[in-house]
Amino acid sequence: MCEKVIKSNKTKRVNLRVTEKEYQKIVGKAKKANLSTSRYVSLSALDKEIIFFDDIKRMNHELSKIGNNLNQLTVLAHQGKIKEVNLTKTREAFSGLWDELCKLVKRKG
């Protein structure tokens, strides 16, 4: 990922103590978010939303499943095996994913 290097005016240091289990959990979450531990803790403490790669990966998987189902339905329609399909649930699933994607883009922007 490319990030602009912005000169920081951070002059204050915050030290805290955590258990080994808490430390491992924080470090694990920072890695999942592709952030340094310091940046992750700062964003968390300041109530900033953090985007996890797993969220994007899950969305991609769900979109792939929807696309696969639509392709299968298209094949069946071309073969004349089906004439009408209720896509209400598919539309709802896609709309939900679209909303999540829009939120991610707004958070990142």
Topology:
Blueprint: H1 20-32, H2 37-45, H3 53-78, H4 88-108
Residues in β-strands, percent? under 5%
Shape: elongated
Uncertain segments of ≥5 residues (pLDDT<50)?
1-5
User: What kind of sheet is the major sheet?
Assistant: none
Q: Rg to the nearest angstrom?
A: 21 Å
Order of helices and strands: HHHH
The strand count comes to: 0
Give the proportion of residues in helices: 55-70%
Plain-language structure description:
The protein has four helices and no strands. By secondary structure, the chain is mostly helical. It has two domains: 16-50, no CATH class; 53-108. Helix 1 (20-32) packs across helix 2 (37-45) and helix 3 runs antiparallel to helix 4 (88-108). The longest helix is centred in the middle third of the chain and has 26 residues, at 53-78. The chain starts with 19 loop residues before the first helix and ends with a helix.
Overview in brief:
The chain is mostly helical. It is built from four helices and no strands.
Main features:
109 residues, mainly alpha, 4 helices, disordered N terminus
